[in-house]
Write a structure and sequence with these properties.
This protein is α/β, with parallel strands linked by helices. It has a domain of 148 residues: Isoleucyl-tRNA Synthetase, Domain 1 (Orthogonal Bundle). Helices cover 50% and strands 16% of the residues. Strands 3-2-1-12-13-7 form a 6-stranded parallel sheet, with helices on both faces. A hairpin with a 2-residue loop joins strand 10 and strand 11. Helix 5 packs antiparallel against helix 6 and helix 14 packs antiparallel against helix 15. It binds 5'-O-[(L-methionyl)-sulphamoyl]adenosine. The site of 5'-O-[(L-methionyl)-sulphamoyl]adenosine has 20 residues, from strand 1, helix 1, helix 7 and strand 12.
């Protein structure tokens, strides 16, 4: 089965910070999880490079917009490499393949009579790259997100008949039995969209006359395509809309879009309307997470108030940085991030719980059996319990994008195995019953192997390291795929008796 997942394409006027990283790592965790579950995954990310905002940012740096975009887009790629993001393709809206795709979409919509010309006057926020009605602004007339006053713009533009899709979109968002049901998570956000939709939809301007840095309309080269329309079409271009028809047929429609709530409206209303206008199937699911502040303030590079991927990796290492970023704040809620909060979670979940579990088992195995646990009774009870607990909760949570809950499930099971070790008190068995001690260690190793397989999506490197430490057999990804398919634990376990265990430095050194 195929699974097509996307992140938003990020504006290149900013560099990647922990907010962008959250969405991208969360998408990566889901993509890796689906791959482990034998899906053929297409994972798209990229950069949004047109529009007035990017034009202004490039001018401020005295660079041509293209040069500016090339440099900034490369920085996003570097950040995702650093965070071990396994995307299938990286789309840039200044690429030729995208220009062709946008032209085609606009031409089809126009041929279908869905585009018309109209004189228009409204308030425009360049930060958001969108028009606002007075009622959408705060009491000072400022945009809620940027806290700046939108400017009055008056243009003759090409409009899209968005209003004619109101009922069709409502039906697809509200009726789970509709064959094109568009699921929006979480419920609260879905209800906001439904409420807003019920108030009615106005036609929307799809072009700009005053913005040069954009894709010219195929039928009127004096105007450029509105940057949000240009941007949304990336989801089609990236999977081959024009350049690879077979790939497009294979992966379309999108199975999961991830983003924060700030851009949910565009994905749940405008993009579906474009797709319906084109006669293409709608995306299936949107996961909308909350918006994060840092130490109580908006994150912004100019305020110097950001946490960068590099800083995260320098402090915690790549895998821990990935884990902490996506599990610190409950999915769907807004939240405040701080270094203190990240370090606290690192010490609790990783140093004290997971790291301690692996290290205490290996220490006893080293001390008592020189890292070869002899064959005795092969007890798989603990492994079966570990597997059953994870199967029940983790899978559902992952499928609902509740990554922080899936991580909690992992933590509970790690605590469960740590408690079993306390109960068995293997350090006492050293003096009394070496056979029982060997059996206990064998059983802990199998449980740890199962935990490590569930950890793969969050910690692709450390999970494999644990697999080596415990002397588990076979290519971990292949073994895990088989295990997730049939949930059967091999008769001799994953780490056989007498396997060569490995000592290692501390997996997660405590951080003060
Ligand atoms: N270019 C548009 C998206 C077009 S998609 C067709 C855009 N870009 S953006 O660079 O502003 O990225 C917005 C997204 O980045 C958010 O929806 C979210 O996924 C992520 N985040 C950036 N800052 C964030 C926070 N402070 N908190 C949470 N997520 C944030 O909008």
């Amino acid at each position: 089965m195929k699974f097509y997942i996307t992140t938003p394409i990020y504006y290149v006027n900013d560099v990647a910070h922990i907010g962008h990283s959250y969405t991208t790592i969360a998408s990566d965790v889901i993509a890796r999880w689906k791959r482990l579950n034998n899906y053929d995954v297409f994972f798209l990310t990229g950069t949004d490079e047109h529009g007035a905002k990017i034009d202004a940012a490039s001018k401020a740096k005295c660079k041509t917009p293209q040069k500016f975009c090339d440099e900034m887009s490369a920085k996003f790629k570097e950040a995702w490499k650093l965070l071990d993001i396994s995307y299938t393709d990286f789309i840039r809206t200044t690429e030729h393949r995208h220009l062709v795709s946008v032209e085609k979409v606009i031409q089809i919509l126009s041929d279908k009579g869905l585009i018309f010309k109209k004189k228009y006057e409204s308030l425009y926020c360049v930060g958001c790259e969108r028009f606002y009605a007075q009622k959408d602004l705060d009491e000072n007339g400022c945009c809620h997100l940027h806290q700046t006053k939108p400017t009055l713009q008056s243009e003759e533009n090409y409009f899209f008949k968005l209003s004619s899709f109101q009922n069709a979109i409502l039906e697809r968002i509200t009726n789970p039995n509709h064959e094109e049901y568009l699921e929006i998570q979480p419920e609260e956000r879905r209800n906001e969209i439904i409420g807003k939709l019920k108030l009615g939809l106005e036609d929307i301007s799809f072009s700009r006359i005053a913005v040069e840095w954009g894709i010219p309309l195929p039928f009127d080269k004096r105007q450029t395509v509105y940057v949000w329309v240009d941007a949304l079409i990336n989801y089609m271009t990236g999977v081959g809309y024009i350049e690879n028809e077979n790939r497009f047929k294979k992966y379309w429609p999108v199975d999961a879009h991830l983003m924060a709530k700030d851009i949910l409206w565009f994905h749940s209303v405008i993009f579906p309307a474009i797709l319906m206008g084109l006669g293409l199937p709608l995306s299936r699911k949107i996961y909308s997470h909350g918006f994060f502040t840092l130490n109580g303030s908006k994150m912004s590079k100019s305020l110097g108030n950001v946490i960068s991927p590099q800083e995260l990796v320098d402090k915690y290492g790549v895998d821990a940085a990935r884990y902490l970023t996506v599990t610190l704040i409950p999915f769907g809620s807004d939240g405040d991030i701080s270094w203190e909060g990240l370090t606290l979670k690192y010490n609790e979940d990783l140093a004290n719980n997971l790291g301690n579990l692996v290290s205490r088992i290996i220490k006893i195995a080293e001390k008592c059996f020189d890292l070869h646990v002899p064959y005795v009774e092969q007890n798989l009870e603990l492994a079966k319990n570990t597997s059953a607990i994870l199967k029940e909760n983790f899978i559902v949570n992952m499928d609902n994008g509740q990554l922080h809950k899936a991580a909690q499930d992992l933590q509970s099971v790690i605590t469960f195995v740590n408690r079993q070790i306390e109960t068995d008190a293997p350090w006492k068995l050293i003096k009394t019953d070496m056979n029982k001690l060997a059996a206990c260690i064998y059983s802990y190793l199998q449980a740890v192997d199962i935990i490590a397989m569930y950890l793969i999506p969050f910690m692709p490197t450390i999970s494999k390291k644990i697999w080596q430490i415990t002397g588990a057999r076979g290519d971990m990804d292949e073994v895990a795929k088989k295990y997730f398919l049939d949930s059967i634990i091999p008769e001799n376990g994953f780490s056989p008796s007498n396997a060569q265990l490995q000592v290692f430095g501390i997996l997660f050194p405590r951080i003060c």
